[in-house]
Amino acid sequence: MTDKVRWGILGTGKAAKAFATALKDTPDGQLAGVGSRNLATAELFTREFGGTAYGSYADLVHAADVDLVYVATPLPVHYENVRLALESGKGVLCEKAFTVNRRQAEELVALARANNLFLMEAMWTRFLPALAEVRRIVDSGEIGTVRQLHADLGFKADVGPEHRLLNPELGGGALLDMGVYVLSIAMALLGPVESVLAQADFGPTGVDEQTGVLLRHSGGGMSVCSCSLRARLSSELTIAGERGHVRMNTMFYRTQTVTVARADGISRTVPTPYLGNGYVHEVAEAQRCWRAGLVESPGMTHADTLALMGLMDEIRRQIGLTYEADQSMTTKENP
């Protein structure tokens, strides 16, 4: 085994560049190569970040000097790209949302487990110091038994209908792009969901442009979550008990401060800086798990991902949002 974990990146977009940047700040990780459907695009990427350029995804995942693959392609092709990497014997870190629906996620998890390969959803919020501090404060009992969580994430998307945020063919919509962050952290802090109520507003392209969700968790807590492509929301998360609350400040999914406010009037703000651009923490966790021969991370388990995908499937059922991947699954089940 080499001293550094060698990464291959599928895709050359915004997330891929953020990940490559994080690798520069991760001492035991390095970029081995990047794969694109266009060799010239891959070469442009490697001129900036290093590594070998590959003109196809298949060439990258079969490269002998690649240990782990980061999938940063558009959501609708996550399933086929992750499957390609797993079938090539590579461990995978896949950008959120993990897949379009739970059925796709189940197949990928089963494939990874059958072949003893590492697989993790790249939910970077799960590994940031801010969330660890919130957990510590809640576990200390300082705010009492947790009863409610409120979280939102949203901005006005000034983009055209062809943009990935609004294009149904690219998995567009507020829920899968931003709601996934809110729901994931709500489940991380309050536990499994036993019931859900959802409503949404749709735009001209047929995707949800804002969605609101009320969750009841099996532990007895309740969370109110919303996401929007129409409004600049506060994008904060507050978790509250009978003796006070903890707030992950704007933007909660990458916040570097946490504020505690107690019922007795005492409050404080705790610095929670992260390394590099924030991706470093999930990179380090993926590498740790891969080196240890694990198939999943205890910080973002397969069960966590499947529960989250199942929850979003139910929300989409309630609001009436479907994608091509859902229809192809139905066709397979009902020939």
TrEMBL record:
Residues annotated as domain GFO/IDH/MocA-like oxidoreductase = 132-246
Q: Which key words tag this protein in UniProt? A: Oxidoreductase
This chain belongs to the protein called Gfo/Idh/MocA family oxidoreductase
**Which SUPFAM superfamilies does the record cross-reference, listed alphabetically?**
Glyceraldehyde-3-phosphate dehydrogenase-like, C-terminal domain, NAD(P)-binding Rossmann-fold domains
Cite the Pfam families for this sequence: GFO_IDH_MocA, GFO_IDH_MocA_C3
Could you tell me which residue ranges the Gfo/Idh/MocA-like oxidoreductase N-terminal domain spans? Answer: 5-120
Q: What's the family?
A: Belongs to the Gfo/Idh/MocA family.
Q: Which Gene3D superfamilies match?
A: Dihydrodipicolinate Reductase, domain 2, NAD(P)-binding Rossmann-like Domain
